[in-house]
């Protein structure tokens, strides 16, 4: 019944599974380069401020990489089940495997791992990505041509346009709004970092609060799918299973709370001890009135004194008003003596 080296009939193409998001890998590498670059300049910072700067850089870059990476992760919600199910079409043979559905903002990730991995003379370890794009129907058609296992095709079919569940509309639009608010939070984070290097620490705290607010808005947008009628997934003998919030959702919550705490602390400290908070961030406002201006030593060219004669001054006793007038309008003789 089989040919093409163990592949069932009508499926001549070998599978190429989704392993790791290249977008996510690029983001991680870029932020790692920034982290290493900032850490290299730490030895040039003297005193106790070195620890503060290191802590500030690590926390700030952590918030930035989380906000960007959350757009490309595939575990905002997930569902898992271990079941006995048919493996391929045109065959009644069953396998024991763990089926997983992982939902992100830009698509779904379906996993199938055998228990044990080697069954039916084949390694059962699939990890397939289906992006929303405009529709998922094209990718579902490609999956049919590649001959993916029945559990993967069954779950992917639930997200097609013609499926009565309508999951594509729920998850695609909620993911778009969540992604848009996350990118807005990233912009607020950039503005906050620029304001932290200026003597406007109060507004930097406000922008951190705004960053937290937009992260919470993205979570609220994604949470709307939980308020709609759910579509149950039934595979093999496991019964029905539903999706629940996963790691990325809780990571977004933790990052939002962290941004909120930082923003509120900065605003309170700027109102209570503005001088110390500016010293901590190495920023301040220059005040020329409180500073003594020192121009250094002056030198006079003796050539300008050639031919200048001086006459002795006579001591005069003048009234106070006259002394003021003389002090305000010095005579030519006094000027010559001063020179």
From TrEMBL:
Family matches, as Pfam families: DuoxA (PF10204)
Gene Ontology biological process terms, A to Z: protein transport
Assigned keywords, A-Z: Glycoprotein, Membrane, Transmembrane, Transmembrane helix
Organism: Oncorhynchus kisutch
Bilayer-crossing regions: 20-41, 53-72, 177-196, 203-228, 248-269
Compartments where located: Membrane
InterPro entries in the record: Dual_oxidase_maturation_fac (IPR018469)
Family per similarity comment: Belongs to the DUOXA family.
Recorded superkingdom: Eukaryota
The protein's name: Dual oxidase maturation factor 1-like
Cellular component terms (Gene Ontology): endoplasmic reticulum membrane
Membrane topology type: Multi-pass membrane protein
Keyword Membrane belongs to the record: yes
Main location: membrane
């Amino acid at each position: 019944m089989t040919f093409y080296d163990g592949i069932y009939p009508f499926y001549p193409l070998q599978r190429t599974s989704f392993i790791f998001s290249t977008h996510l890998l690029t983001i991680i590498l870029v932020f790692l380069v920034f982290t290493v670059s900032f850490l290299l300049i730490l030895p040039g910072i003297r005193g106790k401020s070195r620890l503060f700067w290191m802590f500030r850089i690590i926390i700030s870059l952590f918030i930035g990489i989380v906000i960007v990476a959350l757009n490309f992760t595939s575990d905002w919600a997930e569902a898992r089940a271990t079941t006995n199910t048919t493996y391929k079409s045109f065959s009644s043979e069953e396998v024991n495997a763990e089926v997983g559905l992982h939902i992100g903002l830009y698509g779904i990730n379906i996993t199938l791992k055998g228990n044990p991995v080697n069954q039916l003379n084949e390694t059962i370890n699939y990890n397939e990505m289906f992006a929303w794009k405009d529709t998922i129907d094209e990718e579902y058609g490609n999956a049919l041509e590649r001959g993916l296992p029945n559990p993967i095709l069954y779950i992917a079919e639930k997200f097609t346009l013609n499926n009565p569940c309508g999951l594509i509309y729920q998850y695609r639009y909620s993911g778009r709004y969540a992604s848009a608010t996350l990118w807005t939070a990233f912009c607020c984070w950039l503005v906050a970092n620029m304001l932290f290097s200026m003597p406007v620490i109060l507004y930097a705290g406000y922008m951190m609060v705004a960053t937290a607010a937009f992260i919470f808005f993205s979570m609220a947008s994604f949470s709307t799918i939980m308020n709609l009628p759910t579509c149950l997934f039934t595979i093999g003998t496991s019964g029905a299973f539903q999706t629940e919030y996963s790691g990325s959702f809780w990571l977004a919550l933790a990052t939002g709370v962290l941004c909120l705490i930082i923003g509120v602390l900065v605003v309170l400290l700027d109102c209570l001890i503005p001088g110390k908070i500016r010293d901590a961030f190495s920023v301040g406002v220059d005040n020329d009135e409180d500073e003594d201006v020192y121009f250094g030593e002056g030198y006079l060219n003796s050539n300008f004194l050639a031919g200048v004669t001086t006459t002795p001054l006579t001591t005069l006793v003048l009234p106070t008003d006259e002394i003021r007038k003389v002090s305000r309008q010095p005579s030519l003789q006094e000027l010559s003596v001063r020179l």
